[in-house]
Amino acid sequence: MRILSGIQPSGKLHIGNYFGMMRPALELQEKGQAFLFIANYHALTTVTEPSALRQGTLDVALDFLACGLNPEKTVFFRQSDVPEVTELTWLLSTVTPMGLLERCHSYKDKIAKGIAPSHALFAYPVLMAADILAYQSNLVPVGRDQKQHVEVTRDIALKFNNQFGQVFSIPEVSIRDNVAVVPGIDGQKMSKSYDNHIEIFGDLKETKARIMRVVTDSKGLPDVKVPETCNAFALYKLFATDEQAKAMADKYRAGGHGYGETKKALHQLMTEYFEPLRKKRVELEKNMDYVESVLKKGAELAKAEAGRTLLMARRAMGLG
Ligand code: ADP
Ligand code: TRP
């Protein structure tokens, strides 16, 4: 089974990225042949500073390696090291109905947030389809907000296969139901673009300050509280064992429990959880040649695979 996912290097990774995409993707490393890439072509739709893109790309590489990406098992690469996907994007564009792209929430959301509506932003899902289809992927682990893009990919692949013959595998999306959407400190979806995020490897003081700012309701200390609707509890649950989560929920329902206590417990569990990974990241940072060599080797394997698919697609369409 071929598993594939990508992430944009458009800012520091946060715990929404971690629980929504990174950890599920890393767990799937054991279940089949995984391809993971840093989507720097996609990031060009929003990152316009070259040095920020370069640095962001290396940061994502370090984050993934620190969080357990095993380069012996997983093909890890930079999207732009495989320019074959941009040619495939064009081929796929010719079978992509405008209406399919016009319906994409992500495009509408980004425009609503004030991002300039470029052609690339609109065509973003077609490049994503090329990423997925170039490697004949079967399973795509992503957060819920990317589900529609995988559905678009399926539609494009089915249409292509139908018109030109069987070239692409049809991918399935994989979403962890228990961590569908990680809330940010303001209670909306955690996202770097809302500045409501908690970085995985952020400054320790800043991380604590952000956790203490997590929005809760205004119930007083003695009041009975509802864990299911509490943001601090939702974040705590991500790091807690089932027993810890149950014990905390019981305290909410009993009254006499303050939200500050949940936040302190959350801070402690999160710090403990990421401590060994943080140490690993510091070590990796001293050895950027190694990081670069991992990405180069990954790119060679990815290029070979994407090249094969591209050739099939070109032939099927009557090119060359
Ligand atoms: P951001 O919203 O911070 O820009 P991205 O859109 O780059 O994050 O998302 C990268 C990956 O992380 C995607 O697979 C996405 O679904 C997942 N992800 C992002 N934010 C969350 C969240 N709050 N909860 C769950 N998954 C998330
Ligand atoms: N669009 C994805 C995101 O913002 C990143 C991405 C690009 C991706 N290409 C992909 C994810 C292919 C999965 C498969 O998170």
Core attributes:
2 domains, globular, binds adenosine-5'-diphosphate, 3-stranded parallel beta sheet, Rossmann fold, two-stranded parallel ribbon, 320 residues, mainly alpha, binds tryptophan, Tyrosyl-Transfer RNA Synthetase
Report on this model:
This protein has 320 residues and is mainly alpha-helical. The protein has 2 domains: 2-181 and 288-317, 3-Layer(aba) Sandwich (Rossmann fold), CATH 3.40.50; 192-282, Tyrosyl-Transfer RNA Synthetase (Orthogonal Bundle), CATH 1.10.240.10. The protein contains 13 helices and 5 strands. It has helices at residues 15-27, 40-43, 50-66, 84-93, 98-102, 105-112, 119-134, 147-164, 204-212, 231-239, 242-254, 259-285, 288-317; strands at 2-7, 33-38, 75-78, 139-141, 172-174. The strands form 2 sheets. The protein has a 3-stranded parallel sheet with strand order 1-2-3. Helix 8 links the parallel strand 4 and strand 5 (172-174). The radius of gyration is 21 Å and the shape is globular. The mean pLDDT is 95. Bound molecules: adenosine-5'-diphosphate and tryptophan. Residues 4-8, 39, 42, 128, 131-132, 140, 142, 146, 149 line the site of tryptophan.
Mean pLDDT: 95
CATH superfamily label of the largest domain: HUPs
Helix proportion range: 55-70%
Give helix and strand order, one letter per element, not per position: EHEHHEHHHHEHEHHHHH
Largest sheet: 3 strands, parallel
Q: According to CATH, what is the topology of the largest domain?
A: Rossmann fold
**Percentage of residues in DSSP E strands:** 5-15%
Shape: globular
| Distinct ligands | adenosine-5'-diphosphate, tryptophan
- Rg calculated over all Cα atoms: 21 Å
- Unreliable residue stretches: none
Strand order of the largest sheet: 1-2-3
What's the total helix number? Answer: 13
CATH architectural type of the largest domain: 3-Layer(aba) Sandwich
Give me the secondary-structure category. Answer: mainly alpha
Total domain units = 2
- Text of the CATH class of the largest domain: Alpha Beta
Record field, number of beta strands:
5
Spatial separation of the terminal alpha carbons = 31 Å
